[in-house]
Specification:
FAD/NAD(P)-binding domain, 2 domains, five-stranded parallel β-sheet, about 20% helix, binds flavin-adenine dinucleotide
Length: about 350
């Protein structure tokens, strides 16, 4: 009983409600607090960290934190080398990630990332109502009413910091037994199997990299050619740490990287038949495989929001925005500099 009653932000009216407790919501609530803006934070999770409490599935991040760089850790310049720590004006809250990493890789492990975020939340005294699921939203005059597993929240402004981590798959892969990100079995159960991965972006290549030591054959297929971040010189494209399947293909090690659309998938007893078509000459191929994995992207879990009469927020100077801008101008520091405040 004590746990329930000690939870912050019981159902009711607030000037602003933030949904989520991933890095986005954590940075936002920290900055709103610094700016003195009253708000409530709700999250379905039991603790801070968001998606990184579970994923990446092969347990290492693709964003780096360099423990040694040509800049002192508490400086702004160091942030260029640490993509994972949250931002703060307070030195105690800056560059937390290098302090929780064991030095075996400059890509933090998933547990290290989770620990870094939990450390920030603890030191910053972030207040979040955990274990509350936002279920639906309706408009009521100038307010939004959020129905949650704990009751109703009413607010004129809501930030849905719910991430973009809900796996999505096209209808052609809606077949029973086709797996997707987050549903994979332990890697060793793919031993000596032929695996067809649909999707040639980072999640497809992450899965292929994780299964390389186990699979007999891996096919990675999608209509567009693979792009590599080392070629695009940006975060567009497959990151270098997942490129091993690409080299395996280039050196004819057994991986197949195919530019083709998936026309259909059939279950044939214990195996699958995947029918593909080339986007350039329409030639077709059929693959008989043991597992089919959809790595076809992620969407935001926006639930019923698309049905609401929402308008694009681009008024020139609405009174509330002006008030926030004045308030933010008075507030110095990181949250203002980064324009995380609603002043623009
Ligand atoms: C497979 C994958 C790997 C990634 N790897 C990296 C990486 O290595 N490095 C990197 O910087 N980025 C990575 N990203 C991007 C990553 O998702 C973001 O950087 C980060 O998680 C975004 O934080 P967020 O707070 O916006 O969302 P999330 O971390 O996804 O947090 C969303 C929050 O919303 C809550 N929520 C959702 N729905 C509800 C609901 N109905 N009710 C209540 N609460 C709800 C969740 O419980 C969670 O707390 C990856 C993304 C994916 C999909």
């Amino acid at each position: 009983m004590a746990d329930l009653t000690d939870k912050p932000f019981p159902p009711g009216r607030y000037p602003l409600v933030v949904v989520g407790s991933g890095p986005g919501a954590m940075q936002l609530t920290y900055c709103l607090g610094r700016l003195g803006l009253d708000h409530a934070v709700l999250s379905a999770d039991d603790a801070p960290g968001g998606m990184f409490r579970r994923w990446p599935i092969f347990q290492r991040m693709l964003s780096w934190t360099k423990p040694f760089a040509n800049h002192e850790k508490a400086t702004r310049a160091y942030e260029r080398f640490d993509w994972n720590s949250l931002l703060s004006d307070d030195e105690q809250l800056r560059a937390i990630m290098p302090t929780v990493m064991d030095g075996t890789s400059y890509f933090p492990s998933r547990p290290e990332m989770e620990k870094g975020l939990a450390t920030f939340a603890h030191r910053a005294g972030l207040r979040i109502r955990h274990g509350v699921r936002w279920e639906s939203t309706r408009a009521d005059g100038k307010d939004f009413v959020l129905t949650t597993s704990d009751g109703e929240y009413i607010a004129p402004a809501v930030v849905f910091a719910v991430g973009v981590a809900q796996p999505w798959r096209p209808n052609v892969l809606a077949l029973e037994g086709v797996q997707q990100y987050g549903e994979l079995r332990p890697a060793e159960t793919y031993a000596d199997r032929r695996i067809f991965i649909v999707g040639k972006q980072n999640s497809g290549f992450e899965i292929a990299t994780g299964l390389l030591p186990w699979a007999r054959q891996i096919v990675l297929a999608s209509p567009s050619p693979t792009r590599l971040s080392v070629d695009t010189r940006s975060l567009v494209g497959v990151r270098a740490r997942y490129v091993q399947p690409y080299e395996d293909w280039a050196l004819a090690g057994g991986v197949v990287i195919l530019d083709a659309s998936i026309e259909s998938v059939e279950k044939t007893g214990a195996t699958y038949r995947v029918h593909t078509k080339s986007p350039t000459d329409s030639s077709t191929l059929v693959f008989e495989v043991d597992d089919v994995i959809a790595a076809t992207g992620f969407v935001a879990p926006l639930r019923s929001l698309s049905g609401l009469p929402l308008q694009r927020a681009r008024p020139r100077s609405p009174p509330r925005r002006v008030a926030l801008r004045r308030h933010a101008r008075k507030t110095r520091g990181e949250c203002r500099r980064r324009r995380l405040a609603p002043a623009r």
